[in-house]
């Protein structure tokens, strides 16, 4: 058995980090493998029913499929019951091998006992996950596109337009988080259901198998204690599933009801989230989405280029820098909203300009980074007043020089 699939938490739906996406891909891959393995088992059962003359060969093939069948459980460790359940298919395969020569009345009612339930499990439960993924991917695209349009609005837009944009992106964000949490919930449920309902189907088939074999009856007698124990473990697992499913759904509803104003809070001196790096190029300004983290204690700031719509796998390591200063960007100095500047120790003199996803998000970044307000030359003086002062200073200097020259021409020694 492997180390198991990584657990999925509803809180990860709010951050939607690259690592969360990577974990989702692992679950999706494992479910696809399970679906293909179930299809293989269904085919094997049908072969047993339709190829009576080759029944012995089909039994051996089915036995081999059972012994090689694997499925992962969530978490790094397994309980004793989970280990018994996960190994049960292999035990079934060994039993089939021991009675391979007994063909009489084999699999007379196998279709109703095995094929239909397995097809139902694959099409309904795994199919529900695939439908959830389509909804999740659709909401991801809608949210990211809505966010892109929202962040491209300039501060010069009318307040009514900006307020409408705020409401629109908030709605898209809520739909995205709901779809994400629902998708995680579906994955959790099918992984748990697989541990009892799928094996239960094959357990029922095994009971029927032994019933139809006279010679297999003695084998079944020896094997029955294990099957009884497995049946009990499956019943316990089913009961636990129903209780845990209620808790999971309650947790889902609680998370969905929570305010999305600050979905990602600064926790224990650490913050993470998406930022857009703004860079001036020869052909204009580029805006690249990054997953960023900051540790207040070490002042380490990391950024990893990542976009949920285009990036499937993490292909590079995050860039790690030590922060030296953080300053809020003045609104009239840049067209983009929610911007702030960073300077790092490793690249003195170079300024990184980032765009947060909202004003609340920018305040959160500035707060944990001890961000400062931009420096104004003289508070309350406009640009035009600053220019006027500079002109007056130059006129005054020229006037003083002219007076000194006149006094020197008159022969005065002290011009002080």
TrEMBL record:
Segments forming a coiled coil: 24-58
GO molecular function: GTPase activator activity
Pfam family, one: BAR_3
Domain PH: 268-374
Keywords: Coiled coil, GTPase activation
TM annotation in the entry: none
A cellular component term, taken from the record's GO annotations: cytoplasm
Name of protein: Rho GTPase-activating protein 26
Upper lineage: Eukaryota, Metazoa, Ecdysozoa, Arthropoda, Hexapoda
């Amino acid at each position: 058995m492997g180390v198991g699939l990584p657990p999925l938490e509803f809180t990860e739906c709010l951050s939607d980090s690259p690592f969360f996406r990577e974990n989702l891909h692992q679950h999706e891959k494992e479910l696809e493998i399970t679906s293909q393995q179930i299809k293989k088992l269904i085919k094997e059962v049908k072969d047993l029913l339709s190829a009576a003359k080759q029944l012995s060969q089909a039994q051996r093939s089915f036995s081999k499929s059972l012994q090689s069948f694997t499925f992962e459980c969530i978490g790094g460790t397994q309980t004793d019951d989970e280990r018994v359940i996960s190994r049960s298919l292999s035990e079934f395969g060994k039993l089939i091998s021991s009675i391979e020569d007994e063909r009489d009345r084999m699999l007379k009612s196998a279709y109703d006992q095995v094929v239909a339930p397995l097809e139902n499990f694959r099409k309904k439960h795994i199919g529900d996950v695939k439908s959830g993924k389509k909804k999740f991917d659709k909401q991801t695209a809608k949210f990211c596109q809505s966010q892109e349009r929202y962040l491209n609005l300039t501060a010069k837009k009318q307040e009514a337009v900006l307020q409408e944009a705020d409401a629109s992106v908030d709605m898209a964000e809520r739909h995205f988080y709901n779809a994400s949490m629902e998708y995680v919930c579906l994955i959790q449920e099918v992984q748990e259901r697989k541990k009892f309902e799928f094996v239960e189907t094959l357990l029922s088939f095994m009971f029927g198998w032994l019933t139809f074999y006279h010679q297999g009856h003695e084998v079944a007698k020896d094997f029955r204690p294990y099957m009884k124990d497995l049946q009990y473990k499956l019943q316990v697992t089913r009961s636990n599933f129903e209780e845990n499913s209620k808790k999971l759904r309650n947790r889902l509803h609680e998370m969905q009801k929570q305010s999305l104003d600050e979905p990602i809070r600064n926790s224990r001196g650490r913050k993470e989230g998406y930022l857009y790096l703004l860079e001036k190029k020869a052909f204009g300004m580029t805006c690249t989405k990054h997953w960023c983290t900051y540790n207040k204690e070490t002042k380490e700031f990391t950024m990893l280029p990542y976009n949920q719509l285009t990036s499937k796998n993490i292909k590079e390591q995050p860039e790690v820098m030590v922060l030296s200063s953080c300053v809020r960007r003045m609104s009239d100095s840049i067209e983009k909203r929610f911007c702030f500047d960073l300077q790092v120790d490793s690249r003195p003199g170079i300024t990184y300009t980032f765009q947060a996803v909202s004003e609340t998000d920018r305040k959160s970044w500035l707060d944990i980074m001890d961000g400062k307000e931009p420096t104004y030359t003289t508070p309350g003086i406009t640009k035009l007043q600053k220019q006027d002062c500079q002109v007056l200073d130059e006129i005054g200097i020229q006037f003083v020089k002219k007076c000194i020259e006149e006094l020197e021409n008159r022969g005065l020694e002290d011009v002080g």
